[in-house]
Amino acid sequence: MRVEFDEDTCIGMYQCVAEWDAFTEDKSRGKAILEDSEEVEDGVFSREVPEDAELDAKFAARTCPVDAIRIYDDDGEQLIP
Q: What residue ranges do the domains of the chain occupy?
């Protein structure tokens, strides 16, 4: 499972931070940060989701009010949102 985070879309509500510890707050920029990720395109960050964190990652994506977090299965099919 893979997560993609669009930092430009993020509005800094930090609901993802409460759901999954891979997200942290950057209050100076008013954005969340996806830790241990790499930028795959301008402003979009991606990382693999450990098996024991899959549920937390899904909750983080579902709670994002602006759909800045997308979850993909191992075949590349988008699961959330």
A: 2-80
End-to-end CA distance of the chain: 14
Q: 6-31 pLDDT, tens per residue?
A: 999 999 999 999 999 999 999 999 99
Tell me the chain's radius of gyration from C-alpha atoms: 11
What's domain 2-80's architecture?
2-Layer Sandwich (3.30)
Q: Which residues contact 6 (CB under 8 A, 6 or more apart)?
A: 43, 44, 68, 69, 70
pTM of the model: 0.93
Structure tokens at 38: 């790499």
